[in-house]
Automatic annotation (TrEMBL):
Presence of keyword Lipid biosynthesis: no
Pfam families, alphabetized: CbiX
InterPro entries: CbiX-like, Sirohydro_Cobaltochel/CbiX
Bilayer-spanning residue ranges: none
Protein name: Sirohydrochlorin ferrochelatase
Amino acid sequence: MTRALVVCAHGTDNPQGQAVVRSIVAQVARRRPDLTVREAYVDVQQPELPQVVNELAAHHDSVVVVPLLLSSGFHTEVDVAQAVAAHPHAHAAPALGPHALLAKVLVDRLVDAGATLDASVVLAVAGSSRAAGATDAERMRELLAERWAGTVALGYLSARQPSVADAVRVVAAEHGGDPSEVVVASYLIGPGFFHDRLGGLGARVSAPLGDDPRLAELVLRRFEGVFEGVDS
C-alpha cells in the first residue's frame, strides 16, 4: 500500500514562520521514509491544499491530511474537509491541538522566556468563530494549567473575547496592575502576523512552539490515528 501524508499549514508571508513549517515537514519525512510527505497551505502560500490532495490521490492508495493547526475551526471544518471529500481514499486527521504534548512544549517555552512555574500566564490563541475552536482553546488552557502552578488565563488574538490585551490587564490587576508580572504564552506554530501582535503589551512573551520535535511526533500520531480509528 502506498500512503501519503499532507502536512497542511495555514500559510504566512513571514520567512521565519515559513522555515518553521518546512522544518516540521522535513522532520516528519525523515521519521517516516516509507511515506510520501508533502506540505500544503490553506492561505497565503503555495501549493494549495486541494491541488496537493488531487495530485497525491491519483497515485496513492491513501492520502491523509494532518492540519498543522492548533485547534478546530473554519480551516479544518471547511477547507480540509472539502479537500478530502472528493476522494474516497483521502482522509482528514484532527488538528494538532489540544494535546498534552503541546502543553509540555508551552511549559518549556515559558521557562525559556524566564518565567517561574508560579508566574501568572495568559495563553494567547489565534481564535476562531467556530464553537469547536473555543472548546479546543479552553481545553488547551486546562492542559497547560495542569502543568503550571500559577494562574493560566485565556486570551484571543481574533474572533473571540477576551482579547489577549484584556486578559493581560485582568491578570495584571492581581499584581497591582503591572503587566510585566504577566507572561504571555504564544500558542502559535511560528513567527508571523499574530505573534507580532503580542508585542507592546508590557508583558513578557514566550517564543512560538516552533519546530520542536514533539510537533513532528504529534503530526505522525494524528496520521496513524486515522488508520487506528482513535484520536491520538
